[in-house]
């Protein structure tokens, strides 16, 4: 009787983000993109046509579901941060090799049931093209890689799909687990601008024969900077009622703003306005979990009533970092078979054999975000987007972000969330 060999598949999705004005000092050549070269208008329109709106909404919704699930497991007051884009990209690479019920469960959790594989891939490729060409003032690097041990019978069509859709690097997985960990961590460090130096805390299991990695690094300049002279020490009210001293940035400006009985929301543009930071502050007495459930029930509610307003904004400088293994969370969401050593079906990834059974062992994810005052000087484009003929606002709206809040980095043209998180306790940004 032959022993059954479990071919362990490890998915890694990592993301780092800085909103500063220090782009010129950073080695942007490390980023696997030509994000300093803008797409022409025709190229941008062609890419947008390939992107399925349903896939973008599903990606954002899945991100919120994961955020909620992680919130129930973490200690109250811990910061939570994920990249819905990075998670979707890493799982998408594995999805290309799935078959049957394994594929169906993955599609159901990720919101891809109504899409053919070709649509998922075309949408992914177009989104990656748009994100890596975000316009002036923003640098985005996206890198994908497949690490596999020598001799693994990977299907040629699968390898081609990863190279064509995800522009994935094909690399050899070192047979020594400790060395494999070192090589992958170094690759991740390079492709996240050094923000995530140690994704893998432990060496991969000996039976791990393939690792799929997605990395995204973001370095963006505010369209309208916060003047450091107005940054002051202030109190941030934690969920447990205690007060934390934070450095609070101040700015009075015209921003896209909305409010209702549940929250205040403001969008802070950076670069030339192709992307923005969405800040959602629950009303006193409301929790982040409550407002996120309302967004899951009605995703378009966040956009209703949004208009350009004069906002007197107080926002803490902060750093947030979070890492987790998403395996249990994805299983609870319904993606069970992909992790089952005896039931998973990835025969379009690795040629089947009597002693081979491919399954996902872990889905490692880590994200880092830093937000500070620096940014590009505000330009005339700050006011672009106001409805024609509308009178300029005259009343100031005060928004003091002095208690737990939600943030999301949003691509304006697609609505895609690159990052989303709960800032429950702003951490100080370390000096460099």
Automatic annotation (TrEMBL):
Keyword field contains Signal: yes
Matches recorded under Pfam families: Serpin
Keyword Hydrolase among record annotations: no
Keywords, ordered alphabetically: Signal
Domain Serpin as annotated: residue spans: 64-426
Signal peptide segment: 1-24
SUPFAM superfamilies: Serpins (SSF56574)
UniProt xrefs under PROSITE patterns: PROKAR_LIPOPROTEIN, SERPIN
Family of this protein: Belongs to the serpin family.
Protein name (database record): Serpin B
Organism: Paenibacillus pabuli
Lineage: Bacteria, Bacillati, Bacillota, Bacilli, Bacillales
């Amino acid at each position: 009787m032959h022993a059954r060999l479990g071919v362990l598949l490890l998915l890694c999705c990592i993301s780092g983000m800085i909103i500063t004005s220090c782009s010129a000092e950073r080695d942007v050549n490390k980023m696997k993109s030509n994000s300093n070269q803008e797409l022409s208008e025709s190229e941008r329109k062609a890419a947008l046509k390939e992107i399925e709106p349903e896939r973008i909404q599903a990606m954002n919704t899945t991100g919120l579901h994961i955020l909620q699930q992680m919130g129930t497991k973490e200690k109250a007051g811990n910061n939570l941060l994920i990249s819905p884009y990075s998670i979707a990209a890493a799982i998408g690479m594995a999805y290309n090799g799935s078959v049957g019920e394994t594929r169906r469960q993955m599609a159901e959790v990720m919101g891809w049931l109504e899409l053919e594989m070709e649509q998922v891939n075309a949408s992914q490729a177009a989104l990656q093209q748009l994100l890596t060409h975000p316009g002036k003032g923003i640098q985005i690097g996206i890198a994908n890689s497949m690490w596999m041990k020598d001799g693994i019978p990977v299907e040629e069509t699968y390898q081609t799909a990863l190279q064509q859709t995800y522009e994935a690097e094909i690399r050899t997985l070192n047979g020594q687990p400790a060395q494999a960990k070192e090589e992958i961590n170094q690759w991740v460090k390079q492709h996240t601008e050094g923000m995530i130096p140690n994704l893998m805390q432990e060496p991969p299991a000996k039976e791990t024969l393939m690792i799929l990695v997605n990395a995204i690094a973001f370095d963006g300049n505010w369209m309208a900077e916060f003047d450091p002279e107005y940054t002051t020490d202030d109190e941030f009210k934690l969920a447990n009622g205690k007060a934390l001293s934070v450095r609070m940035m101040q700015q009075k400006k015209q921003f896209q703003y909305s409010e209702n009985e549940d929250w205040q929301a403001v969008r802070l543009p950076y670069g030339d306005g192709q992307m923005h930071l969405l800040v959602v502050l629950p009303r006193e007495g409301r929790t982040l979990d409550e407002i996120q459930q309302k967004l899951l029930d009605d995703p378009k509610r966040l956009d209703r009533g949004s208009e350009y307003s004069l906002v007197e904004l107080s926002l803490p400088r902060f750093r947030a970092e979070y890492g987790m293994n998403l395996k249990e969370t994805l299983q609870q969401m319904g993606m069970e078979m992909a992790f089952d050593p005896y039931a998973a079906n990835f025969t379009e990834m690795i040629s089947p054999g009597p002693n081979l059974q491919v399954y996902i062992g872990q889905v490692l994810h880590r994200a880092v975000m830093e937000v500070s005052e620096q940014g590009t000087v505000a330009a005339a484009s700050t006011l672009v987007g106001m409805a024609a003929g509308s009178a300029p606002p005259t009343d100031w709206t005060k928004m003091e972000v002095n208690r737990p809040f939600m943030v999301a980095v949003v691509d304006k043209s697609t609505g895609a969330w690159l990052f989303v998180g709960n800032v429950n306790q702003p951490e100080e940004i370390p000096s460099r």
